[in-house]
Amino acid sequence: QDNLQGYKTQNKFLNKEILELSALRRNAEAREREWQAKYTSLEAKLCQIESKYLILLQEMKTPVCSEDQSPAREVITQLLEDALKAEPSEQPEQAFFKPHLVSEYDIYGFQTVPEDDDEEKLVAKSRALDLRSLSLSENREISTGVKWENYLASTMNREMMRCVELKNLIRSGIPHEHRSKMWKWCVSLHIKKFKDSAVPGYFQTLLQKALEKPNPASKQIELDLLRTLPNNKHYSSPTSEGIQKLRNVLLAFSWRNPDIGYCQGLNRLVAIALLYLEQEDAFWCLVTIVEVFMPRDYYTKTLLGSQVDQRVFKDLLSEKLPRLHAHFEQYKVDYTLITFNWFLVVFVDSVVSDILFKIWDSFLYEGPKVIFRFALALFKYKEEEILKLQDSMSIFKYLRYFTRTILDARKLTAIAFGDLNPFPLRQIRNRRAYHLEKVRLELTELEAIREDFLRERETCVEKRDLISDDEEDS
User: Fold this and answer.
1) CB atoms within 10 A of CB 242
2) N or C, which end of the chain has less CB nearby within 10 Å?
3) Structural domain contains residue 120
4) Each residue's pLDDT tens digit, 154-187
C-alpha cells in the first residue's frame, strides 16, 4: 500500500511537471513565431530601404550641376560598387556598406543581375530586392505552401479531379516543389485523347526520325536554340543541359505537325516547359498549347489565329478599360505591336519570372482565356500611369518596358481573376469566330487586288517594264 501510494504521488508530480513543461514549450514556440514574424517584417523593410538606397546612390553619383571630382564622389562610387556585388564569396573588410545578398540566378535559373551595363545592374538589383521584400511580406500570412500540402495530402488515396478548390489554389500559384507534378497532371488532363491514340514510344519514334532524316525546320531550329533564353543558365551556351533537350522536343514536334514544322516562339514555350518537365512531357505540353489551347493557324506562316486574337483583345480592352482604350485611340498608339508577343509566347520575356510562372500555372489548368485576363490585368495595374502620358512616343516607349516594373503577383492575380469579372469563355469564342471571318475576307480581297495587279502588269507593256525598288535591288 505504501509503495502504491508513493507511485501515485510520484505520478501526480511527474504529470504536473509534464504539463508545466508543455505550457513552457508552447509559450516558447509562440514567442519564437512572434520573433520570426518581426524578423521577417524587418528584413522586408530592409530590402525596401536598400532598393531606395541603390537608386539614391546612382542619383548622387551623377549630380546635375557639378563636374568636380570630390572625395564624396569617390565614396559614393565605392558604395555603389559594393552594393552591386551579387553574392560575393568574401566581403572585403573595408567595404563601406555590406549589401543584402542577391543571388546571381533565381530559382528558375534566370540571371537576376546583368553582367555588362551598370545602369541595368542597378535597376535589376533594385527589382530583386523589391521582389524579396514582397516575398517576405507574403510569408508572414498563412502560407500557400501549407494549403497545398493539406490539399495534396487529401488526394493521396484518390485521383485528383478538377474542382473549385484546386482552381483557386492554382490561381494563387503552385509552390516550386510541386510545380513539376502539377504541370504534368494539367497537361495529361488536356491531352489524354491524343496520348491514348498514340503508339507506345511515340515521342522517341518521332525524335529518331528527326535525327535520321532532317526536315526543312531543322536549320531554323538550330539557329534559334541559343537565342531562346540567353539570360537563363540552362540555355546560355551550346553545352548547357537544356539546349539538347530543347532541340529534341522541337525536332520531334516538327515531325508530328509538318503544317507548322517550326515557328519562332515555339522554342520559348518549350524552354519554359523544360524547366519543370522531362522531354516527353514538355513535348506533350507543346502539343497541348498548339493543338488544344490555341486556334488553328496560330503558329503557321500566316499567324492568322494570332492576328484574330489581337482584334478580340482590342474589343475586350475597349469594354473592360474604356478610358485606356480611348487614350490609345486619341494618340493613335498601336499597342498590339507589344501585346502580339504576349499572346504568342504566353508572356515569356515580358514579365518577371515569379509572375510568369504563376501565369503559366493557371494557363496550363484553365487554358487560353488566362492570357486575355492577364493581358488586361497588366494594363489595368498601370492604367493611371499610362493615362498621365500625353504623346504617342512616350506612351509607346513606356509600353515596351512597363510589364517588368510590375512585381506584386498577388495584386496582379487579384485584378486578373477578380476586378475583370465576369469573363465568359463563350464571349471570346464568339468574337474569335466573328474576327476570323473578317480577317479571311480581308486577306481574300488583298489576294484579289494582288492578282489583278499582276495580271494588269503582264498585259500592259509599259507597266511590265516598270520594276519595283525591291525587284531592282534583287
Assistant:
1) 20
2) N
3) yes
4) 988 888 999 999 999 999 999 999 999 999 999 9
